[in-house]
Write a structure and sequence with these properties.
This protein is 60% helix and 8% strand. The protein has 665 residues and is α+β, with helices and mostly antiparallel strands. Helix 3 runs antiparallel to helix 8 and helix 23 packs antiparallel against helix 24. The two termini are 40 Å apart.
């Protein structure tokens, strides 16, 4: 069985002139995990405690603001194709930012001036209809006037609210300036209503009679001229952006790398002349990395390599060796399922290949339809080719392809193709004809009064797969415990050898009774009793074997009570772990029932309605049932498989690598 990737601790001593190149290499390589916490703790008070903002971060932030101003789309890659910035790059960035600042100033000035002129024109236009003297109107004994501004969208609502109590007249085109008139007696009610609509009163000269036409024309000409200037400056900005786009994005990539280098460098142990870096690396990459670093620094670097067993922080338990899993693309796509539950212990058996196999198999059994599986397969291919982009799901393209293919195989056996049963009949007749009388489908899940055998066979297969998965989890746990020299835990306890022997013997005995009609003998009870005793009351024996004293740290009474509780838990857990896999057969049957319902409704709905029912029904099954089945498979993996050996977890390997725009501080 494959184990987690072998790791090494590397210590690098680099000169100050080489440290940036070393960090750049490590960030692009993405295979070096810093001992961050230990290093920070050990280097308190050293020259590494710098608080000033790295200069390259300032450049990056300024360039990002320039990019936003120029309406240029940001980079979507990790920028690892770029190199750390040179002094020439910093000079180019300074000139570019200066030009952008000058352009931004002109844009803001011209835009503000155009807005001011437009507001003045609107103000003038608002009073173009007012030809009588305002003072003459104001002194009418029976009339109260208000002139001011409201939200143009509220004009109609205001007019409806005041009704016949006042007259509301728009001044201008957009109804944002109004004249409100009411009787003198009703002016207080008018003011109350205007206040509700956020009316802003405008100060009007007493002898004001409106805006002369020549003034309006002059303001209109100024407005058009200012709008033209805005268009011109915007075109200039667009041309500037198009001309400098490539340079700007290149500089952003370079300064993204640069700021991460500077922030990482600021946290390292250092003297005036040298820097010290320590971190973990996969053992298979060690020699190649040493060779590369030696070439980059022209031999001006000291490198020391340590086995995990030689690292004091690992020996005394202060640090866990980070865990990395190494697989080909298909199995690697299931790794996140492992780490979402927890990381294996370093040096333990890698469960990912088993997860990939069982996930694919169980999903196919529960979701058996050739056509629906084909849809999932095609989605996986589209994700793999990046034709269909679904964020993090693109990394799981191989999972979609695998479960789609598995569902197609099960669909061939059950004869289901988008809930129909006729299309695959020729294949079924051909296959079954090779072994006897031709019939279709090959495996009939839907029970009938005359035939329920196939259904119970599926349930039996599901329980059999469950037995294999549970047993494999126990074997992995036992091997891991022996590897870690935890002999007591490997032999005793519910997931140790004692619990495994109890589980296996009970299953074998049940098969013997069911298949060969054997009766339970005395030796059966003896074997079950001994294995069950050491599985339930294994803790004191574990402590004796592992030389941990006292044997009963909480007292004999507590030890006995704990053993009794554990006895009940061992029996109930192994029973539930086995029975739990009946859901695989249940979901397989449920899927067949859903397909049968869709087919029946299709036949009842006529040609056009039937086509709609067939399409919509299959779409619902693919999306909703596909999600439910996936959740059930994950649940079986987590609770029935992982629970056997994930009694303690390790630390996932998270190497230092450049990510565009990331702050490391």
């Amino acid at each position: 069985m494959a184990r987690t990737t072998e790791m090494r601790l590397i210590e690098l001593i680099a000169l100050k002139e080489d440290i940036s190149s070393v960090i750049e290499y490590l960030g692009k390589k993405g295979n070096f995990q810093f001992q961050t916490k230990l290093q920070n703790a050990d280097s308190k008070g050293s020259k590494s405690s710098r608080t000033e903002t790295p200069i390259d971060r300032n450049f990056f932030d300024s360039l990002q603001q320039a990019r936003i101003f120029l309406n240029i789309s940001d980079r979507t890659d990790d920028a690892c194709s770029c190199s750390m910035p040179t002094e020439e790059n910093r000079g180019e960035a300074s000139k570019l930012l200066s030009a952008v600042d000058e352009l931004r100033t002109r844009v803001n000035t011209i835009t503000s001036e155009a807005k001011r002129i437009e507001e003045a024109y609107k103000e003038a236009l608002a009073f173009s209809n007012l030809k009588a003297s305002y003072s003459e109107l104001e002194h009418l004994s029976f009339l109260s006037l208000r002139i001011g501004k409201i939200d143009a969208n509220l004009f109609d609502a205001l007019k409806e609210t005041v009704g016949e109590r006042a007259v509301i007249v728009p001044l201008g085109i957009d109804k944002s300036r109004i004249l409100a008139a009411s009787s003198k007696k009703g002016r207080f009610a008018l003011d109350t209503e205007l206040k509700k609509f956020n009316f802003v009163n405008m100060e009007i000269p007493q002898d004001f009679k409106g805006i002369p036409d020549d003034v309006l024309k002059s303001l209109k000409d100024q407005k058009e001229e200012s709008a033209q200037k805005v268009d011109e400056i915007n075109r200039e900005r667009d041309n500037f952006a198009e001309t400098h786009k490539d340079m700007l994005l290149t500089l952003l990539g370079a300064f993204s790398i640069g700021m991460q280098i500077q922030e990482t460098e600021s946290r390292l142990e250092s003297t005036e002349l040298v820097y010290r870096l320590t971190g973990w690396i996969p053992a298979r990459d060690s020699q190649g990395m040493m060779k590369d670093l030696d070439q980059i620094t022209e031999g001006r670097i000291a490198i020391r390599e340590y086995l995990p067993s030689e690292v004091s922080s690992v020996i005394n338990g202060r640090e866990q060796v980070p865990v990395k899993l190494h697989h080909k693309k298909f199995v690697a796509s299931f790794e996140r399922m492992i780490f979402s539950y927890g990381s294996p212990i370093y040096g333990a058996i890698d469960p990912t290949p088993f997860v990939a196999l069982f996930f694919t198999l169980l999903f196919g059994i529960m979701f058996g339809d050739f056509g629906q599986g084909l849809v999932i397969l095609i989605i996986g291919i589209l994700l793999e080719k990046n034709i269909l982009k679904m964020g993090g799901y693109n990394k799981s393209a191989a999972v979609f392809i695998a479960v789609g293919a598995s569902s197609m195989v099960m669909g061939l056996l059950t004869g289901e193709f988008f809930a129909t049963e006729k299309l695959l009949e020729p294949f079924a007749y051909w296959v079954t004809g090779l072994f006897g009388t031709p019939h279709a489908p090959i495996v009939k899940l839907m029970p009938s009064p005359s035939n329920t055998t196939a259904m119970f066979v599926v349930f039996g297969i599901a329980v059999g797969i469950g037995f294999i998965i549970n047993s494999l989890g126990l074997i992995i746990n036992i091997i891991n415990k022996f590897s870690m020299k935890k002999i007591g835990e490997a032999v005793f306890g519910k997931t140790g050898l004692a619990g495994a022997c109890f589980f296996w013997y009970v299953i074998i005995m049940a098969i013997r009774i069911a298949a060969f009609h054997h009766t339970i003998a005395v030796y059966d009870w003896i074997i079950i009793g001994i294995t069950l005793f050491f599985a339930a009351f294994g803790e004191p024996f574990e402590r004796i074997v592992d030389r941990k004293y006292p044997v009963a740290p909480d007292g004999t009474t507590a030890m006995v009570i704990s053993g009794v509780v554990e006895l009940i838990e061992v029996i109930s857990n192994y029973f539930s772990n086995t029975v739990s896999f009946l859901r695989v057969g249940a979901f397989a049957l449920a899927h067949a029932v859903l397909d049968y319902i869709i087919l029946t409704m299709t036949k009842m709905s006529g040609p056009i309605g039937g086509a709609v029912v067939l399409i919509v029904g299959n779409a619902i099954v693919v999306v909703l049932e596909g999600m439910i089945v996936a959740i059930q498979v994950v649940r079986l993996q987590y609770y029935e498989f992982f629970s056997k050996f994930f009694t303690e977890t390790g630390s996932e390997f998270k190497p230092f690598r450049f990510e565009y725009g990331r702050r490391n501080a």
